[in-house]
């Protein structure tokens, strides 16, 4: 009798050890299965389910997890939440060297463009800064600044060594501090969108205004189709 009872206890222990446990379900689909609303039928109504498979994968909202933690949700932002004091708008989930996760301010995708086209724009004289109609205010941060321009020399006195200059100054007047300076040596009469780029860090909100200057030139500067076209583009990096 004792041997029979011992055998039954061992058989029961093995059944429990290798069996499946279900909460609110009589048909568990893993070694451990919780059906919160008690409404799962095969692969339907599994949005509220938690399933642990024999390989250790844990599924939330799925009965077939494909990773150690597999979360499924049909609601944006409804699958995962980490609130540890580092959370914030537009932050990126990252980790330390040991894989401990936390939120971190990532590179912002903030970008923009200012365009100006000045009909019948003529630039005369030497070393004279002229307003070209480009101005914008950027918030504190680090930016990739890209400036493009199109112009055409209509005067026949173009000389080797002539230079076209672009200046960015702080504020809206000539008295503002110089922030950036680009220039190119003129090799032909037509310049189609030469591009100038620079990474600039602003420690506070800053207004940028663009100015153009012609040096060592004896003629006039005028673009094709009677306009001087300029584009100021920026991408906020951090």
Question: What attributes characterize this protein structure?
Answer:
single chain, 238 residues, mainly beta, Jelly Rolls, 2 domains, 5-stranded mixed sheet, 4-stranded antiparallel sheet, 1 helix, rod-shaped
Structure, explained:
The chain is mainly beta and 238 residues long. The protein folds into 2 domains: 20-74, no CATH class; 111-236, Jelly Rolls (Sandwich), CATH 2.60.120. 7% of the residues lie in helices and 45% in strands. The chain has 1 helix and 15 strands, in the order αβββββββββββββββ. The chain has one helix spanning 2-18; strands at 21-23, 32-35, 49-52, 58-60, 69-71, 91-95, 101-105, 111-119, 130-138, 141-152, 163-170, 178-185, 190-202, 206-215, 227-236. The strands form 4 sheets. The protein has a 5-stranded mixed β-sheet with strand order 1-2-3-4-5, with no helix packed on it. The longest helix has 17 residues, at 2-18. The chain is rod-shaped. The protein starts with a helix and ends with a strand. The model has no long low-confidence stretch (mean pLDDT 78).
């Amino acid at each position: 009798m004792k041997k029979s009872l011992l055998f039954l206890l061992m058989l029961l222990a093995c059944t429990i050890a290798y069996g499946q446990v279900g909460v609110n379900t009589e048909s568990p689909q893993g070694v451990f299965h919780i059906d919160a609303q008690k409404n799962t039928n095969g692969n339907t109504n599994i949005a509220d389910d938690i399933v642990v498979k024999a390989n250790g994968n844990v599924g939330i909202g799925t009965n077939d997890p494909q990773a150690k933690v597999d979360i499924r949700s049909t609601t944006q932002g409804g699958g995962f939440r980490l609130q540890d004091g580092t959370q914030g708008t537009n932050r990126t989930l990252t980790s330390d060297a040991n894989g401990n996760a936390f939120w971190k301010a990532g590179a912002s995708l903030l970008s923009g463009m200012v365009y100006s086209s000045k009909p019948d724009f003529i630039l005369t004289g030497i070393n004279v800064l002229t307003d070209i109609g480009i101005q914008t205010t950027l918030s504190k941060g680090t930016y990739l600044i890209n400036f493009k321009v199109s112009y055409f020399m209509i005067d026949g006195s173009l000389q080797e060594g002539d230079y076209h200059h672009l200046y960015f100054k702080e504020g809206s007047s000539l008295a503002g501090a110089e922030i950036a300076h680009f220039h190119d040596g003129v090799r032909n009469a037509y310049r189609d969108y030469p591009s100038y780029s620079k990474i600039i860090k602003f420690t506070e909100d800053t207004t940028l205004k663009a100015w153009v200057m012609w040096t060592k030139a004896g003629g006039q500067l005028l673009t094709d189709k009677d306009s001087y076209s300029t584009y100021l583009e920026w991408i906020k990096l951090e």
